Structure formats: structure tokens, C-alpha cells
Amino acid sequence: MAVSPDTRKRLITAALVAPASAWLFVFLVLPFIAIVVFAFGERAPEGGYQAAFTFAQFANLGSRAAAFKNTLVLAPIGAFVCLLVAYPVAYYLAVKASPQHRLLLVSLVVVPFWTSLLVRTYAWMYILGARGIPHLLEFIGIENVRLLNTPGAVLLGIVYGYLPLMIMPIYVSLEKLDRRLLEASADLGAKPLSTFFGITLPLSLPGVMTGVALVTILLLGEYLIPQLLGGGKVFFIGNALVDLFLQSRNWPFGSAIAVTLVVVVVIVLLVAMRVAWRVAGTRQVDLV
């Protein structure tokens, strides 16, 4: 039986997509289904999961209000500070830097990813610890300064760790900017500030929204930075999940928090996409 060209194309496409689809289903969809099932169960007497159908775990989310508050406050603030720092850097790399040095400068932005985040965070623990900056401040008469295990330390670690992820999408967006638009604006007598707010910023907003959404979503599940720089005093939802699954062994409650976190991430992504579409005037914006 002869196979039509359209059918052959569909079969080839299905064969190419099948391995990736199977991988995502096994390692993404199935675990999430298990987490949803656990979320409606009960904690077994010896810990773990016990089959049941109850909403008690979701009703108990308020007991972890501090983790939700820290996450939903520090994650957006961290993303915003990353944006404030990243945009001038990305603008310089894409618009001002010479082509001969641009590749080198972009490489320097990526270099921190060559080192483990754990090692870099431990370095900040020493810098902010008693033998670091506070010790130096004692020489000029400023004593009893505590930087480590504070929200400021966590915020600093967030900006340091996630800044490259904010710079690169903005850089890509600015690098595609048509320079003739900037020249035309200058020829028409527009001041540099007017050109920036009228042309550069609007055209780079897709990259800005991509960076903000990417950093915010990753920060919502952050565990390492609050654990090390917060010292157990500033903890995120990720820290609460580790405690519930590995220490308290309350899998249903941890699953309920995980499901809630996924819902929050989806909402953040949808809001970011809608804002990007409206501001940029197009629906062709890729956030992930």
C-alpha cells in the first residue's frame, strides 16, 4: 500500500518528536501527576504518603506563610534589581562596545557559569561573614555590623547569581536593534534620552520581559542561596520543600506546596507574556 507524501511527512515528524515527547512525559508529566496525587493524601504515621482524598494540606498552607512571603517579595525584588543592573551592561555590550571587543566582553558575562553556584555562594558567605566586610568595617570604627543571614545578603546573592540570565536576553534584543532608527532619531533632533525612551527601550522590551520572567520563575524555586546566605532565618519555598520531604517526611503537605508553587509560576509566566504582547505590540514573544 502506497503512502502519500503528506502521510510520510507526518510519520517522519512523529518519529522525530516521539523521543523528546516520551522523555518529557516520563520525567516531567508523570512526576507532576504523582505530586498532585500526593497533595490530596495524608501523611502516614511513620512519614511519607498515605492514600486519601482531602484538601487539608492546601488548607494548611498558611503555616508556611513566611516562606511564601519571602519568596513572593524577594524574588520579584531580586529580578527588578537584576534588571536595573543588567540593562546598562547589555546596552553597552550591544550598542556601545566595539565589535572587536564585544565577544570578549560577552564571554566575561558568561564566565561565572563556568564555576559552580555553590562555590560562588560560599565565597559570598566569607565576604559577608564576620571575617569579611564586617571585619574591615571595624578598622574604621563601625562595629557590630551583621551582613550574613539577612534579607540583604540573600538579595545580593540572588543578583550576583542570576545577573547573567538577565543580561543575555536583553543583549540579544538590543543587538538586533536597527541602528538606522537611532540615526534617524538623532537627525530629526531628538535628544539621546528621548531616543532611548522612544525607540531603544520599546524595541528591547521583549528581551526585558524574557529576562524578568526567566529570573523570577527560577527564583520562585530557589533553595541554595537562601539556605547559605540566609542561614535558616530567610528561607524560600524551596527550603520549606526540602524540610517537608527530607526531614519532616510530610510528603502530602510538601506536594501541596509544590503544586501551589507551580500554579504561581504559571500565573507569572502568563502575566509576563500578556504584558510583553501588549507593550511590544506583537504576540511573537518567546519567554521560555
The CATH superfamily of the domain at 68-250 is MetI-like
Give the fraction of residues assigned to helices. over 70%
Q: Class by helix and strand content?
A: mainly alpha
- Broad CATH class of the domain at 68-250: Mainly Alpha
Radius of gyration: 24 Å
Order of helices and strands: HEEHHHHHHHHHHH
Domain ABC transmembrane type-1: 68-272
Protein name: Spermidine/putrescine transport system permease protein
Transmembrane segments: 12-40, 73-94, 103-127, 153-174, 195-219, 253-277
Subcellular location: Cell membrane
Walk me through the structure:
- By secondary structure, the chain is mostly helical.
- The chain has a domain of 183 residues: MetI-like (MetI-like fold).
- Helices cover 73% and strands 1% of the residues.
- It is built from twelve helices and two strands, in the order αββααααααααααα.
- A two-stranded antiparallel ribbon has the order 1-2.
- Strand 1 and strand 2 form a beta hairpin.
- Helix 3 packs antiparallel against helix 9, helix 3 crosses helix 11 and helix 7 packs across helix 9.
- The longest helix has 35 residues.
- It is globular.
